[in-house]
């Protein structure tokens, strides 16, 4: 698939033939917060929330309703902020900064109790995905790549399929990409191919 992607990438002048894989010296990275048109429909917002929730909570640790509401509000307010101020680069780092500074103050002003949403615990668990953390590269890609209009994308999962951190993130990105294409690209034939699943 790498060769096919390279050929398509070359023939389309770099517009298509996007290939994602994980290498130790060039780890896979995304920016799930980026959209070219700053359009954040319900699916996009839900995808961001699901991604953050997956990183924040373990499988055997369901979130409380108050935590879900707080996360939903944080994502919505962050999106409002980046839409108003386009100098803020939409990525996980700026979301983390927003929660640490702005959202913490909003929660305090609303008298949200720590037992309802522990912002320090939230930030602590997500710190590995922030800036120079162990996975700081994962959700902060510098490539402003909106996959919506890309016609040929390959996600190579062999290396990450057994990784408990990377595999869920990549899977959520794949699903969000396909759902986004299904909803927004009306009248265009789409196909998802899963090999050796």
Automatic annotation (TrEMBL):
Superkingdom in the source lineage: Bacteria
First and last residue of the signal peptide: none
InterPro entries: Conjugation_ATPase_TraG (IPR022509), F-pilin_assembly_TraC (IPR053155), P-loop_NTPase (IPR027417), P-loop_TraG (IPR043964)
Start and end residues of each TraG P-loop domain: 1-197
Pfam families: P-loop_TraG
PANTHER family in the cross-refs: CONJUGATIVE TRANSFER: ASSEMBLY, PTHR38467
Protein name, as recorded: TraG family conjugative transposon ATPase
Upper lineage: Bacteria, Pseudomonadati, Bacteroidota, Bacteroidia, Bacteroidales
Gene: traG
